[in-house]
Amino acid sequence: MRILITGITGFAGSHLADLALEKDGVEVWGTFRWRSPMDNVKHLKGRIEFVECDLRDSSSVLGAVERVKPDWIFHLAAQSFVPTSWLSPSETLVTNIVGEVNLFEAVKKVGIKPRIQIAGSSEEYGLVTEEDLPIRETTLLSPLSPYGVSKVGQDLLGFQYFQSYGLPIIRTRAFNHTGPRRPADFVCSDFAKQIVEIREGKKEPLMEVGNLDVVRDFTDVRDVVVGYWLALDKGKPGEVYNIASGRGRKIRKVLDLLRDLSGIDFKMKVQPTRLRPSDVPRLVGDAGKFHKLTGWQPEIPFRKTLQDLLEFWGEKI
């Protein structure tokens, strides 16, 4: 079986490639842009096939799909950082929505029907009330960021192309995930990096933070990519599935746990640049529909996820 992972050099894409290479009879291909950092996949060179492709360029996407002719596509490539979407909303919308349309149109033109997983996000749900928790797939989509809007666009386009053209598309909405290789733009990785910098004397013992009172549902990325695989293996085309732990954690408590694991003490300072124009207070997911279908559930304890993240930054720094 030949699989194509768009955005293979990214955080989740590199972990998904690791998982795919453990499977028998699977040939792994992945897209990258010429300026993509390759650190996450340098251990995979010689084991997977790389295809240079800019999803915003329809001819580039068509060429990649014609070359690979995949049986499965995991569509992970995206502008995935919420704060960046506030600074560059048009780039976020074009990259995420138009990029996906280019992928679907390329598949149609080549005349293949691979199973396609769309990596959605809990940010699609946005403004939820306490009565909505835990969030199910039927919860109203009320995104509060341009990134969230772009993911709703991807999600609904996936449904539309399934209904209109019969493309076997399965949509997933993963809640927050973290672990080794997570860029420092994201909260857990940012905290872990700062802690290691403090430990190594590269930074004063002052932790720069944003809003510590929001609640998020964290899962280890290595569990999430197992969910992505199961979505294409067992998922029903046209359906959408939450991938979540079902447990909410206040960001302040996450920072406290990192402090305990590292043994490093520090003071905290709120940086206005780390605050968003609007923030979702609580995002906690219900993955019951997905668990019932596939048996998936998180296996890696959160303490291990954070410990591995500290070790990752320790090696880099």
What this model shows, in words?
- This protein is of the alpha/beta class and about 325 residues long.
- It has ten helices and 13 strands.
- It has a seven-stranded parallel beta sheet with strand order 3-2-1-4-5-6-11, with helices on both faces. Strands 7-10 form a two-stranded parallel ribbon.
- Helix 2 crosses helix 4.
- The chain is globular, with a radius of gyration of 19 Å.
- The mean pLDDT is about 95.
Give the topology, please.
Elements: E1 2-6, H1 11-21, E2 27-32, E3 49-52, H2 58-68, E4 72-75, H3 82-87, H4 89-110, E5 115-121, H5 146-165, E6 169-174, E7 177-178, H6 187-199, E8 206-209, E9 215-217, E10 219-220, H7 221-234, E11 240-243, E12 248-250, H8 251-262, E13 267-270, H9 288-294, H10 302-316
Helix pairs in contact: 1-7, 2-4, 4-5, 6-8, 6-10, 8-10
Summarize the structure.
The chain contains ten helices and 13 strands. The protein is 41% helix and 17% strand.
Overall CATH class of the largest domain: Alpha Beta
* Contiguous runs where pLDDT drops below 50 for at least 5 residues: none
Report the radius of gyration as a whole number of Å: 19 Å
> SSE string, helix = H, strand = E?
EHEEHEHHEHEEHEEEHEEHEHH
**DSSP helix count?**
10
Note the overall shape: globular
| DSSP helix fraction | 40-55%
Number of domains: 2
> How far is the first residue's CA from the last residue's CA?
38 Å
Largest sheet: 7 strands, parallel
